[in-house]
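Hello,

Following up on my earlier ticket. Below are the two sequence lines again, exactly as submitted.
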Amino acid sequence: MLKLLARAGLSTAAIVVMSAAPAMAAEGKIDPADTAFMIAATTLVLLMTLPGLALFYCGMVRRKNVLATMAQSFAATAVVSLLWFAFGYSLAFRGDGAVFGGLDRVFLAGIGIDSISPLAKTIPEMLFMAYQMTFAVITCALVGGAVADRMKFSAFAMFCALWLLLVYVPSAHWVWGGGFLARLGLIDFAGGTVVHVNAGVAGLVAALIVGARQGYGRENLAPADLSLAVIGAGMLWVGWFGFNGGSALGVGSRAVFAIVATHLSACAGATVWSALEWAKRGKPSVLGLISGAVAGLGAITPASGYVLPWHGALIGALAGAICYFASTALKTRIGYDDSLDVFGVHGVGGALGTLLAGVFATAAVSASATNPGVAGLLEGNAAQLAAQAIGVVVTVAWCAVGTWIALRIVDAVVGLRVSPEQEREGLDVALHGEAMGL
Amino acid sequence: MKLITAIVKPYKLDDVREALDRLGVRGMTVTEVKGYGRQKGHTEIYRGAEYEVNFVPKTRVEVVVADRLADEAVAAIRAAAVTGKIGDGKIFVSSIEAAYRIRTGETGEDAL
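Thanks for your patience. The regenerated structure is below:
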């Protein structure tokens, strides 16, 4: 399958490069401050995956699977980055199609030193491409958490490749690349739908198809080392300043508003999740603190550049409560094994935040010289909430379908799940021939 | 010679070591173990998942002493390790058939 795609891609690239590429009117001028900021933001977002997510996830699995879990973050980075450079960027962020993107930047053809994307007019196009690449990377890496401890490494790598092209790239095009959801008026500053709803729904579908871990509900599946998860969560929190702040695509007040909203959301999420747990269970767990923070961070993501910072605290608080419920009572009641709560935290949090963006959007935050800004329900614009709801529904629907297709293909080619013996032995030894030691 | 195996609370290790040292016991082997007796474990909760952890961390101290020292050694260990609360541990005594010092080849009580 991949060989076919590769051959098709190389032929396409050859044709594109050899023919005269249409001249893109380069409005915009590379601004050194914006460029410096966005390089920093790109770095921060990559740090969120390497090693942020790697640590966050590996600390929560059993000792015999720690290395394998970290491997998924690194593998996702490698596979997704290479495919992004080859096809992903072009198909997501080029072209005028409502549904499909363009092929003019396949293998980054035509991106020169001076190139500027119309979607980010004050930074080099190469930088815009790289920044978006780090988003694609972490989204794919996130999905692995739902099927932790039982997915084959080959299956995960292949899944990343297929899912990137089937789900993430179209979704990014529809929301950020000028596709039909953007034209509908959907606002999603940094990826409530493209990143979090997609990762969450994909995780849920994967968890349902791959099935629960052996011993789920009966055996002790306790985390190997929560201190690693805490360190990872810290990197995610700080890195999110680049994830949301950098989505302003330039330096300035909007980036700052986004960062402050993000931070307050994390704090509120951590506080509320912790408080609920304290009340319900008698003790506030460290896992609850970091989970609440990440829930808040995911929820504020779509709203961060559109709302006032104190709205962030409100959104984070709601996310802390709702994601707590989704990751505990709901999961237990329905009975699926979303091992690291990708759906409960990212899926639910992202959807919630996308809807709340339609409630709290404040025109002054997103206004500019050429744009009156986007107003939400509280400022009298109920239509925004409708656009947000449509965005969430469309994202969920296509993600579920696309994930199912990707998983069925991977299953047919290499098989999704390790054997029961490999699962017992542990993925570190069984898949990678390595062990953490005593 | 007797092998005395004592399972004690981890924080009692230093007291036990000092007590045996005062008796003239010059060496021991210590391992970190887990187990349970009358002391129950605890419950851990990770998001929605509750796990009963039945085992409690303990420290196992092993010393080999001459027969005539065995009773004193047991008493010394017990005095050092006791707290009066459930989970203080146990002491077992078994017979050792032979002992050797690797460096010099000494045998029997000379090896201890």
